[in-house]
Amino acid sequence: MNASATDDQADVERVLAGHISAFEGIVRRWQTPLVNLAYRFCHDRGRSEDMAQEAFLRAYRGLGQWRRDAAFSTWLFALATNLYRSELRRIPARIVSVSLEDIAEPPDPRASDRGLEDGDYDRDLAVRRAVGALPAKYREALTLFYFHDMDIGTAARSLGLPEGTVKARLFRGREILRSKLPQLLAVPHLKEAL
Amino acid sequence: MRHLTEHDEAEINSILSREDDILPSSGFTVSVMDAVRREAAVPPPIPFPWKRALPGLVVAGLALALIVVAGVAAIAQLGKARTPQLSMSMPAVPPPIFHGGIGSAVIWTVLALLVAFVSVKLSMRVGSGRT
After folding, report:
1. What are the CA-CA distances from residue A89 to residues A76, A82, A92, B99 (Å)?
2. Does residue A117 have a pLDDT over 80?
3. Cβ B11–A185 below 8 Å, yes or no?
4. What's the predicted TM-score (pTM) here?
5. How much is the pLDDT for A113?
6. For the segment B82-94, what is each residue's pLDDT rounded down to a tens digit?
């Protein structure tokens, strides 16, 4: 058990014993990952903090439900992911309001005059928008997969799904991206590289 | 249409992996802890008094069952009295439950008022915490 996991367990025991201030240790350790995970879902800094705060509150309320057979971080990420997914279903992020058909439009030819950095930026934005425009189940699988450094097992535990299901969703999501992205990736420097 | 090459796939992986990380604002921890303390200060919700409510629920269940049985019996009697024609229209003859005339209607009304009165008194007692 690593230091973080030991600290988590100790803090949880203290909070459950009535020392509310011990929860601060948990917040300090996990605030950056939780805010960043929320940011990957909604792409809005203010909203991501609101969502992360709600996730911490729910974690506090449900602390007694954490079973010690899984790491605290696994439980916390699953809880946060579940909350973020529901929240995004309730009020979708602005980035997902763009349809895949709109995304698939070829990039502005003027991008080539703006230099490589602008081209890179456009392409990055286009790829992220294409992911944002995917159906929720594929988008969520891809978001969690890349957030957890392409670790399917961790992504599956966060989503509360079997690894096989996540693999299938990643495959299907990539298939959709594959059909939509060639035009988007056709920016000058990539053309040269191919 | 051009197909994605391995290079493109690697490019997509690279783009999606290097998504910008953000740092929580300086007051985030304080804000969360304030919310947690507010949450902790709220008294726990009062559990539903199943023990006290059980007799009322049983009586209500029995009353409902009686009404259903009486309704079914009334419809069955009506079916026998009518010709064996299948019809979805409203019965022209009122069910036997109404045959008693005004006296029967008064009894049913008094009974309904009594049940309502007992329900209200019971719920008020449960609500005020008296036994």
Report:
1. 20, 11, 6, 57
2. no
3. yes
4. 0.64
5. 44
6. 655 555 555 555 5
**Cα A191 → chain centroid:** 30
Residue of A nearest to B21 (CA): A36
Cα–chain-centroid distance for residue A98?
18
- B6 inside 8 A of chain A by CB: no
Look at B36 and A23 and tell me if their CB atoms are within 8 Å. Answer: yes
Q: Does B29 touch chain A (CB under 8 A)?
A: yes
Q: By C-alpha distance, which of A39, A60, A40 is closest to A48?
A: A39
CB A177 within 8 A of CB A131: yes
pLDDT score, position A183: 64
Chain A residues near residue B3 by CB distance under 8 angstroms:
178, 182
Q: How far is B23 from chain A (nearest CA, A)?
A: 6
Q: Which residue in the set A52, A149, A177 is minimally distant from B12, CB to CB?
A: A177
CB contact under 8 A, B8 and A193: no
Q: Is the confidence at residue A14, as pLDDT, over 50?
A: yes
The closest CB to that of B15, out of A52, A124, A149, belongs to A124
3-class SS letters over chain A:
CCHHHHHHHHHHHHHHCCCHHHHHHHHHHHHHHHHHHHHHHHCCHHHHHHHHHHHHHHHHHCHHHCCCCCCHHHHHHHHHHHHHHHHHHHCCCHHHHCCHHHHCCCCCHHHHHHHHHHHHHHHHHHHHHHHHCCCHHHHHHHHHHHHCCCCHHHHHHHHCCCHHHHHHHHHHHHHHHHHHHHHHHCCHHHHHHC
Residue B72 neighbours by CB distance under 10 Å: 10
Tell me the shortest Cα–Cα distance from A170 to chain B, in angstroms: 12
Inter-chain CB proximity A146 and B28 less than 8 Å: no
